[in-house]
Amino acid sequence: MKIIDEKNRCGWCNSSALYQNYHDEEWGKPVYDDATLFEFLLLETFQAGLSWITILNKRENFYNAFDAFDYKKIAQYSDDKIQNLLQDAGIIRNKLKVYSAVTNAQNFIKIQEEFGSFSQYIWAFVNHTPIDNYPKTLKDVPATSPISDAISKDLKKRGFKFVGSTVIYAHMQATGMVNDHVENCWTRN
């Protein structure tokens, strides 16, 4: 894909138009919808150990393979469906990650039942208000935070998989719980 334009953006997204679109349209914008929060959670867990652009390039395949990220359907996946996913070259065919998608969907629903919504649960960790770190450069953007540590610990206690602090911090960035757009990024204007 051709790069969109020459706007000042966070340096991590300048290698492709797909990255730039994601940065401009989604990254760092607050998300309160449970379906979208689950989509990013699923994608972030598959990203663990890989680059985000790898996941973005396969996002549509994930959408199709995982029933439009419908966590209610995913929570009910049969072994046959899981085996089909493990044969799908369009996604990341990591057995543990595929199984974790089902487990995480089941636990996502349990959190909804306990808190009314996953959004209520996760946003409570930041008092329902995005944190703006105002980083000057990419070097000032952390990989984790005490809050991502706490969320990770709580999710693991609830049975979630592939939700280490780095994955959770990336989820917080993707869903706007934390704003890490650098100082000269056009999105700050």
Automatic annotation (TrEMBL):
PANTHER family listed in its UniProt record? DNA-3-METHYLADENINE GLYCOSYLASE 1, DNA-3-METHYLADENINE GLYCOSYLASE I
Swiss-Prot/TrEMBL keywords = Glycosidase, Hydrolase
Q: Does the keyword Hydrolase apply?
A: yes
Q: Name the NCBIfam families on file.
A: tag (TIGR00624)
What EC number(s) are associated with this protein in UniProt?
Answer: 3.2.2.20
Lineage at the top is: Bacteria, Pseudomonadati, Bacteroidota, Flavobacteriia, Flavobacteriales
Q: What name does UniProt use for this protein?
A: DNA-3-methyladenine glycosylase I
Hydrolase: is it a keyword of this entry?
yes
Q: Which organism is it from?
A: Flavobacterium polysaccharolyticum
- GO MF: DNA-3-methyladenine glycosylase activity
